[in-house]
Amino acid sequence: MAWNFGEAVERLAAALPEDKVALAHGDRNITYRELDAHASGIARALKKAGLDRGAHVGHYMRNSPAYLETFYGCAKAGMVHVNVNYRYKADELKYLLDTLDMRALVYDREFAGEVAALKDMGLDIGLFIEAEPGAPENEFAMGWDEAIGGPAQAGDFSDDDVIIIATGGTTGMPKGVMWRNEDMWSAMAVHDLRPTLAELSPPVPDDMAGHITNMTNYQVGPRYCPLNPLMHGAAFMTAIVLLARGATVITVPGERFDPLASLREAKRQKVELLGIVGDAFAYPLVEALDAHADEKLLEGIGSMVSSGAIWSTRNKERLLEHNPDMILVDSLGSSEVGGFAMNMATKDEKPQTAKFVIGPRTQVLDDDMQPIPPGSDELGMLAVAGPVPLGYYGDPEKSAKTFPTVDGIRYVMTGDMCSVDADGVIGFKGRGNAMINTGGEKVFVEEVEEALKSTPGIADALVVGLPHERFGQQVVAVVHTADGETIDEDVLRSKLKTRISDYKVPRRIIVTTEELRAPNGKANYPAAKRVAEAAG
Asked: What is the CATH number of the domain that holds 37?
């Protein structure tokens, strides 16, 4: 169908009951009609500033209603969402804003100092909006009350409107993935939402009017709470897809991920679907659940969904102990693809790690772009056919490499290396650019990390390759221990040898307290490598 996320929410605002809540944050509830009105105000502010259709608008915010209100304001104005990593420093911010040609910036008040510094860097930004009530800290910025003021009005929508998701900061400078609304809607498998919440997932008609009528009749949910940041693709894409299905998106107040506070808020808000990113979120959640078992903090949560990082079998099992009725969905995806393979675990289906059932548009291709024979020992790269993004903004060379056309079919080459079992299930080995070559043997770091994290006493682990005189590279692990426990490296290595080949076992294991993950839970390999190199 011709699709625009902004138009879907505008129509739902008119069709759903007046008190239907779209966004919740602490004690604040914003209905669909209020969301539409606030988005209209932001659209007026963007246009009044002289910005043209298609202008790029930076979203420099933590999780809050303002993030999604700004997105829908851009949609109503025919302008383009671009996410901004709130951990970036001045030079990184300048690079991102300049490279992705941002013409407006909406930011949280806590970042007013960083924004003031940017103001003097020669960027072509015509409008700053400070996304909190009251007078803005920066006098050159528009206040939030002024930005969202005024009545709702019809948006200026097009089937070809674009959403940009900046991604790739851990493997180089960020790239802007350009998605047409319709392609993202289709790629996110919204037509069935998989078995995750089947009772809340009526079929999606082939036209917008039919979709709105269907959503109005069903009054669907779910109540979705992303614990991972909206500034990254997994949470953002899921949020806008679910809002187009009449859901409520709940964000947790606070500047940092607090597992206990998050669980208590999820229970208070009657969350049904909880979003995380792998073990960086799952492990602290399990620790909080164990320490407060009497509160039954997972009660009522039907599904927990992870995307973007490995989610270990051990943590899945521990979560199911606290709520055996949950469905745990481990989704393989990226900002360039959406979700394209999944692994489900329940009390009746034993949790697995790094085993995924691929969708119909996914293949594992060898170096000659031919499918890997199921049941062979060959490795190949996951390739996903359309609908796919238009490419990377302003970077035709990287676009051609990542989005090649083979035999008339346009693919996304995900970078994920996999094997294919005889039954068609894929075994995820890791990112091709995160492989270590030690003495001619290929070691995929995610496989070693999973073996480490499945060992009692290890809370988190990243694996890097360091130079070695004889073997070219050696495998080195940087780990966080559980509750400050000490480890015996020789004992740990002996345990690892029962799970993985000798050449994959880290030659050195370094314990650190330094942060190894970004706020979205993804691995920060440059940080891990710095720790490993500093250890000598």
From this structure: 3.40.50.12780
